[in-house]
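Chapter review: from sequence to fold.
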Amino acid sequence: MIARGIECLGLGKSDLDVTDTDAVSHTLQKQNPDVVFHCAAFTAVDRAESEQSSAFSVNRDGARSVALACGEMAARMVFFSTDYVFSGAKQASYSPCDEPDPISSYGRSKLAGETEILASGVEALLIRTSWLYGSGGQNFLRAIVKRAQEGKTLRLVDDQIGSPTWTMCLAEAALDLVGGSASGIYHVTNAGQASWYELGREALSICRIEGEIEPISTEDWGAPAPRPQCSVLDSSKAEMALGRSMSPWREALKRFLDEEFE
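The token string follows.
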């Protein structure tokens, strides 16, 4: 953000509870932003099955609170959504025009957030993305590289297909879409598709680690929440608005790992 000359303020959970409508309105009125990037989310997919109230409180009600506050002051809103708003039954890439059909509580809660924002009338950019990894927060790639370095066998699902996406690529695209005054629903991911098994193999290959990886099925994995079998997102609408193609996922992965383990 500094390199782009943009003044920004990042607020964490301890700074602002997005489910507190009055607090959200007060904070935004005080800061008077031009654009609000709403990144707060309940992202624990499996826990959302048993904690549906919490998931909807953050993902639906929190989104509504931010949308209403942005509307009060004519600020633009950017909301990050997910491939999980789709069932994955299409067996082809999903465009922003495809009808959502979530199969998990997490997916339903994020779709409910989208619906609240669109109903609020605020000028909003809704970005659906997928399979995020980056230097902050929980990191699937860092975890599997560490396990492989320790000589542990990795068990990775090979029957779920998506588009692995580096958060840096997502952030750059989001800023450029905002700069181009984009609004409505866009899909933004790195190009191409892979299974979790393929992603893990590629990561170890880039890091030159000879680890053992066992492909397993979603059923064998046994997670509480159902996952879309194929949730590849079609980013062509975003690429047209950006005037460029999204980086292939393998290229983005190598750039991330080179930085992460330099």
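Two observations follow directly from the output. DSSP finds ten helices and ten strands in the chain. The CA atoms of residues 54 and 83 lie 20 Å apart.
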